[in-house]
């Protein structure tokens, strides 16, 4: 009887541990905090663009972290809205060449994290 109880508790713990790991990795996929120095160099940002891009990026990261805490249906629409807002705001700040590079970086990040459902 005791051995059965220990075995069941071990299986339950192992199952819950795997579930927690899935949730953690899922939340980590939505973490969009990036190195602004690298982004600035990649996009060749002017000094006046850096602060604005950083603010837009911080807002985007916050929206994505917020979306990670919701169920799949809500999360999908929240991620879509966050990406649309990010692209819309970046268009005001970046020139055409910078915007093309940014879209490549953003799409690559979204695809690598498996968020392109």
Distance between the first and last residues' Cα: 47 Å
Mean pLDDT: 78
Number of domains: 1
Category by helix and strand content = mainly alpha
Largest sheet: none
Helix-strand sequence? HHHHH
What percentage of amino acids are in beta strands?
A: under 5%
Helix content: over 70%
Shape estimate: elongated
Computed CA radius of gyration, to the nearest angstrom:
20 Å
Which residues sit in consecutive blocks of at least 5 with pLDDT less than 50? 9-25
The count of DSSP E runs of length 2 or more, i.e. the number of strands, is 0
Q: How is this structure best described in words?
A:
With 117 residues, this protein is an all-alpha fold. The protein has one domain (31-112). Helices cover 82% and strands 0% of the residues. The chain is built from 5 helices and no strands. Helix 3 (47-67) packs antiparallel against helix 4 (72-93). The N and C termini lie far apart (47 Å). 13% of the residues are buried. The model is unreliable at 9-25 (pLDDT under 50). Residues 1-16 form the signal peptide. Keywords: Signal.
Feature tags:
5 helices, elongated, mainly alpha, 117 residues
How are the SSEs placed, and which strands pair?
Layout lengths: L1 H28 L6 H8 L3 H21 L4 H22 L2 H17 L5
Helix pairs in contact: 3-4
Overview in brief:
By secondary structure, the protein is mainly α. The chain has 5 helices and no strands.
